[in-house]
Design brief:
The complex is a heterodimer of chains A (181) and B (125). Chain A is an alpha+beta fold. Chain A contains 6 helices and 6 strands; from the N terminus they run H-H-H-E-E-H-H-H-E-E-E-E. By secondary structure, chain B is of the alpha+beta class. In chain B, strands 1-2-3-4-5-6-7-8-9-10 form a 10-stranded antiparallel beta sheet. The longest helix of chain B has 21 residues. The interface between A and B is medium-sized, with 22 and 20 residues.
Chain lengths: 181, 125
């Protein structure tokens, strides 16, 4: 022990400083390793961050696509003067769309009297709306849920159908026609 | 700061005036007679009016592609009328209280048809 102390003293000053630096760096790494094991989520956190990064990248891509579309009505069917979406664009627009305006809801309610009743009684209130791409059917589905008290009975009605047209405002897209027949 | 507040108020006034001018009764008489009304969401109704309500023959066009041509009673689709859906499907027949009620024919955009009695928008098998 005494010999090692003496041999340390005999070392030159730069070597001692370098050894100290290496020691401090090792201590920092060790501290972070211990803290990460105690508080960190490790691989799980990295995986979550990757998913979030991919989601942001996908959203940016979709936003870029939406801003490149013409403003107005975008349709997925033939026979109108409106902008006809290709299959690829139809899927992308569907995935980027979140909003369903009142007129689309009122149109879908034509074929669902119960939904229309609850919608009217509750002051046009909508509990939930959804727009989703069905990979199996290769179609875009949209819908909404209305609930409320109708003549003393609590009711919940879900209306859904194919989203066949969209309104492009230049900033976002909205479902414009839900075919529920 | 004062300039900014003035600018905001002035812009709001101009916007309100522009909106007020583009909606409401645009042509004719929308109280008693024949007139065209434009709603804020760009829905239009052109037809007969009685006591400020849509009553008689008229055409209502929604911005998302629904077009109803036919009879109105108390502002609702009632009587004989035809509804064009945005995808080209149609329903032609009887209406009551804004819904398909009575005898009518639904024609899908591919030409397939269903004729019979309808009640509140549903086909009665």
């Amino acid at each position: 022990m005494e010999v090692s102390k003496n041999s340390f003293k005999t070392l030159s000053e730069p070597v001692k400083q370098f050894g100290g630096l290496v020691g401090i760096i090792f201590l920092i790494f060790l501290t972070f390793f211990v803290l990460n094991n105690i508080f960190g989520e490790g691989d799980e956190l990295v995986a979550k961050m990757k998913i979030e990064e991919e989601r942001i990248a996908e959203e940016r891509k979709l936003n870029k696509l939406i801003s490149s579309l013409p403003s107005g009505v975008l349709v997925s069917f033939d026979g109108t003067d409106n902008f006809k979406l290709s299959d690829e664009l139809y899927e992308a627009v569907c995935k980027a769309t979140k909003l369903i305006p009142q007129r689309a809801i009122m149109g879908a309610n034509f074929l669902n009297f119960r939904a229309h009743e609850i919608y009217t009684i509750n002051g046009n209130k909508i509990d939930e709306t959804f727009v989703k791409w069905d990979d199996e059917k290769n179609k875009c589905f949209a819908g909404f849920v209305v609930s409320g008290n109708n003549v003393g009975v609590d009711e919940t009605v879900k209306v859904s159908g194919e989203a066949l047209s969209f309104l492009s405002t230049g900033i976002d897209t909205r479902v414009y026609f839900i075919k529920n027949f | 700061m004062k300039k900014l507040i003035f600018f905001i108020l002035f812009s709001s006034l101009i916007t309100s005036l522009a909106l007020a001018r583009s909606t409401g009764c645009k042509e004719g008489n929308c109280e008693n007679g024949y007139g065209k009304w434009v709603y804020t969401d760009k829905t239009t109704y052109e037809g007969e009016w009685v006591a400020t309500k849509k009553h008689g023959q008229g055409t209502e066009t929604w911005p998302n592609g629904y077009i109803y041509k036919g009879e109105f009673k108390e502002s609702q689709w009632s009587g004989i009328g035809i509804l064009f859906f945005p995808d080209g499907s149609t329903y032609e027949g009887e209406w009551a209280n804004g819904f398909m009620n009575g005898k009518g024919t639904f024609t899908w955009s591919d030409g397939k048809q269903k004729t019979g009695i309808w009640k509140n928008g549903s086909f009665q098998e």
